[in-house]
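Summary of Year 1 activities. Much of the first year was spent building the evaluation harness for sequence design. The harness presents a backbone, in tokenized form, and records the residue chosen at every position. We chose the following record to illustrate the format because it has been used consistently in internal testing since the harness was completed.
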């Protein structure tokens, strides 16, 4: 639920093209917000796995859209992104990192192992 005028309504006002006053739109009708929330959740899952490998992990960006991971022993670091395989995210997600790293976001433990090896 979101808040409009200080009370819970289950909807939120959004500015629509041609609608200067804004109109009530169900909160679940915002696909960009849904993708951002899904992305942040997948990156948080990855962070938990990375920390299990002894790596330092920090979510970055206002919408937690990327992860900075550092190997404390070597000082090597990498930025990891999560991206949907299709515009709506229905075909799965992938983790991407520099050096050509790619892993299926459905398996964050496996991705963490690959990232740990790359930073080790």
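For this record, the design step produced the sequence shown next.
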């Amino acid at each position: 639920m979101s808040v409009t005028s200080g009370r819970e309504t289950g909807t939120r006002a959004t500015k629509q093209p041609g609608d200067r006053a804004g109109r009530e739109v169900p909160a679940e009708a915002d696909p960009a917000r849904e993708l951002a929330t899904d992305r942040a959740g997948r990156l948080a899952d990855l962070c938990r796995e990375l920390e299990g490998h002894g790596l330092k992990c920090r979510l970055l960006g206002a919408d937690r859209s990327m992860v900075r991971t550092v190997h404390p022993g070597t000082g090597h670091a990498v930025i990891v992104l999560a991206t949907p395989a299709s515009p709506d995210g229905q075909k799965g997600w992938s983790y991407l990192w520099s050096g050509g790293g790619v892993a299926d976001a459905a398996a964050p433990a496996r991705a963490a192992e690959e990232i740990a090896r790359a930073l080790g």
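The chain is about 30% helix and 40% strand. Quantitative recovery figures across the full test set are reported in Table 2.
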